Amino acid sequence: MRRQLFAIMAIALLAGCNQYGNDLEQDLQQDNAKPHIEDQQPNSIYVKNEKHPPEEEVMLYSDHYAYFLEQFHDELDVLYNHMLNGNYMRAEKSAETLFNYTKDMEGIYTPQSFEDVKELIVSSRVELNAILDDLPNCDGQTDCDNAKTHTENLTNYLVTMEHLYEAKINDLGITS
After folding, report:
1. Both 4 and 63 in a single domain?
2. Residue 53 is part of a domain; what is its CATH number?
3. CA 154 to chain centre
């Protein structure tokens, strides 16, 4: 008796599932037959840029800052390699180069909309000063722990500067 009841339930269930599958297939066919048109508004960044294009000084600073980030990233990679290889004399020269990059960037006129970016540059110089103070004392692998920690902090600053820059150019409607 139980087997017969189970067989009847299974047949009813399969028949119901098959009908449900057919309904889905028909719905998909109907959806594919109709053209898909959305009433979509244009991207707000482009609309903002068309109505109020960024000022020339903002555009120039943005380009200069992008170049700074690229240089900073490349030189920080060099600094990391020197630190990993224990070549502290070359690491010091690389840290000096990074320090000069930040000093030059800080000396450039900064539009109001990029002031928060400039604060990160100043903060990264503090880490670079610490690296430059610690590197002359390095004579073995364990003596450079502070310099390595400051180098890692510098990497965090770079990541933050890159993310903030991306958010800033999106907010300002600057497209590349």
Report:
1. no
2. 1.20.120
3. 16
Task: Write out the residue range of the structural domain in which residue 158 sits.
Answer: 44-172
CA distance 142 to 131: 15
34 vs 116: which has the higher pLDDT: 116
**Cα distance from N-terminal residue to C-terminal residue, the chain:** 74
Which residue is associated with the tokens 């590197």? 135
Q: What's the predicted TM-score (pTM) here?
A: 0.68
Q: Is 139 helix (H, G, I), strand (E, B) or coil?
A: coil
Contact 37, 166 (CB under 8 A): no
Q: How far apart are CA 29 and CA 20, in angstroms?
A: 14
My answer on whether 34 and 50 are in the same domain is no
Same-domain pairing of 36 and 62? no
H-helix or E-strand spanning residue 110: none
Dist. CA 61–CA 55, nearest whole Å: 10
Q: Is the same domain home to 74 and 133?
A: yes
Joined tokens for residue 142:
């364990």
Examine the domain organization and report whether 10 and 76 are in the same domain.
no
Per-residue model confidence as pLDDT tens digits over 83-92: 888 888 999 9
100 plus 168 within the same structural domain: yes
Across 73-173, the runs of DSSP E, i.e. the strands, are none
